[in-house]
Amino acid sequence: MQPGFEPNSNVAELEHLKRAYATQRDAYNAAPFAGEALRRERLEKLRTLLLTHTDEIATAISADFGHRSPHETRSLEVFPSLAGISHALSHLKRWMRVRRRGVSIWFWPASNHVIPQPLGVVGIIVPWNYPLFLAVGPLTVALAAGNRAVIKISEFTPRFGETFRQLVAKYFSEDEVTVVNGGVEVAQVFASQPWDHLLFTGSTSVGKHVMRAAADNLTPVTLELGGKSPTIVHGDYPIDTAAQRILFGKCLNAGQTCVAPDYVLVQEGKEEAFVAAAKAVVARWYPNMASNPDYSRVVNGRHLERLQGYLRDAESKGARVVPLADCDPASGKLAPTLVLGATNEMTVMQDEIFGPVMPVLGYKTLDDAIKLVNDRPRPLALYYFDNDNTRIRKMVSSTISGGVGINETVVHVGQDDLPFGGVGPSGMGHYHGHEGFETFSKMKPVFAQSRLNGLWLMHPPYGKRFERLIKFMMR
User: Fold this and answer.
1) Nearest of 166, 150, 156 to residue 129 by alpha carbon
2) CATH superfamily, region 10-225+426-445
3) What is the pLDDT of residues 285-344, one digit of tens each?
């Protein structure tokens, strides 16, 4: 802890949570539909908050990590957050429009419409790895959809949590948006509130608990989880280019990214070439790893020990561990490290790694690689490196994952016109852009009967007229 820094107690946070929920529920009931002008005003306030306080936010996040590159905070959190807000503002009028739908010929001349309606009060549970982006991303589409929101920040990023709470309170009233901090107890109570929608980003194991808590209130949930996202490099693809793009995705935030490449499949015989290329990339990007300001620390000692445990376990079971740079563990950093010869018995091939450790496996044929991926739980992302369109189509159609990146890693998350979400163990539901707007809206169907219509022909008492009509309709 920094001198003088004391996070609020769970008791205070629980009181704040209950007050904020009640305040927002009352405000929503009093004014359930936010018009376009009000939604734009809220999104503009959110944008002003980010633009005005970028340095404060970056400093707080870096303090929580022990060191987090401020350049990464700007490029990976502030920039995509601002881009998402701009995208929402540009498309808001179209997203809000009433959509006319067709009417069955038997009900002419009635009309059908779908009206996007705010759900009400939504809860957003934020993880520690990208605390700004994973708060602002869902908040953006929730506000665009006309909702009010309460945000729970991870207890692992308390300095950011307190900073963000103060900034949100400066720009928003408590009945619009508010931030709650606190530990596991607060998170448990938060998940059990009767939200109109709950979005959770975090691990698969915790996601199960969140879904159980939400089930008591039949709260609809969006779960953004993780898993072991595979990367497959075809033998024809330049190994140096592949290594550079894969290491880019793996080294960002020291691998503490839900869509980071988790393990790499290269054609048998190319493992050593990949190792050599990866070493060259890291040497070029991060000289003097321990003191390099561009490479981030592992968030805390617990997670550093977890990652070192993976490496010890792999080495004890016969794998070859290859650090790509020298780095004193006392720095709190872990150098990017490859694991060769990993097997399914090793924890590094069982758990989501969530750090700068990456197994490299060989495969014989592309079908073997596809089978290896499909034999595992469905991942949040899949990355494939190849320039042959036929093989690319095969890879995309033969595997199931939350998203796919072709010849690049991670950056598909920053495409505002693409939905983002997992599948199966890696999550459920989508947000970002239009899909996010719909996630946080009730797409209300409205049938409007015309003054003159023929539905009276279907009314009882049923007789010959009805029999002739229904027989004709069912032809």
Assistant:
1) 156
2) Aldehyde Dehydrogenase; Chain A, domain 1 (3.40.605.10)
3) 999 988 999 999 999 999 999 999 999 999 999 999 999 999 988 899 999 999 999 999
pLDDT of residue 330: 87
CATH of 230-421, one of 1.20.1250.20, 3.40.309.10, 3.20.20.70, 3.40.50.150: 3.40.309.10
- In this prediction the pTM is 0.94
56 flagged as catalytic? no
Q: Which residues of the chain have pLDDT under 50?
A: 1-7
Half-sphere exposure of residue 237: CA atoms within 13 angstroms, side-chain side: 27
Across the strands, what pairs with 446?
Answer: 113
> What are the extents of the domains in the chain?
10-225+426-445, 230-421
Q: Other C-beta atoms within 10 Å of 211: how many?
A: 16
Annotated catalytic residue 224: yes
pLDDT in tens, 91-139: 999 999 999 999 999 999 999 999 999 999 999 999 999 999 999 999 9
Q: Given 13, 77, 155, 258, which residue is catalytic?
A: 258
Q: Cβ–Cβ contacts within 10 Å for residue 31, how many? A: 13
Question: Of residues 72, 155, 224, 352, which has the active-site annotation?
Answer: 224
State how far the Cα of 264 lies from the Cα of 377, in Å rounded to an integer.
16
Alpha carbon distance 182, 321 (integer Å): 38
Q: Tell me, what's the pLDDT at 4?
A: 36
Identical topology for domains 10-225+426-445 and 230-421: no
3-state secondary structure the chain: CCCCCCCCCHHHHHHHHHHHHHHHHHHHHHCCCCCHHHHHHHHHHHHHHHHHCHHHHHHHHHHHHCCCCHHHHHHHHHHHHHHHHHHHHHHHHHHHCCEEECCCHHHCCCEEEEEEEECCEEEEECCCCCCCHHHHHHHHHHHHCCCEEEEECCCCCHHHHHHHHHHHHHHCCCCCEEEECCCHHHHHHHHCCCCCEEEEECCHHHHHHHHHHHHCCCCCEEEECCCCCEEEECCCCCHHHHHHHHHHHHHHHHHCCCCCCCEEEEECCCHHHHHHHHHHHHHHHCCCHHHCCCCCCCCCHHHHHHHHHHHHHHHHCCCEEEECCCCCHHHCCCCCEEEECCCCCCHHHCCCCCCCEEEEEEECCHHHHHHHHHCCCCCCEEEEECCCHHHHHHHHHHCCCCEEEECCCCHHHHCCCCCECCCHHHEECCECHHHHHHHCEEEEEEEECCCCCCHHHHCCCCCHHHHHHHHHHCC
Spatial distance between the Cα atoms of 124 and 150, rounded to a whole number of angstroms: 6
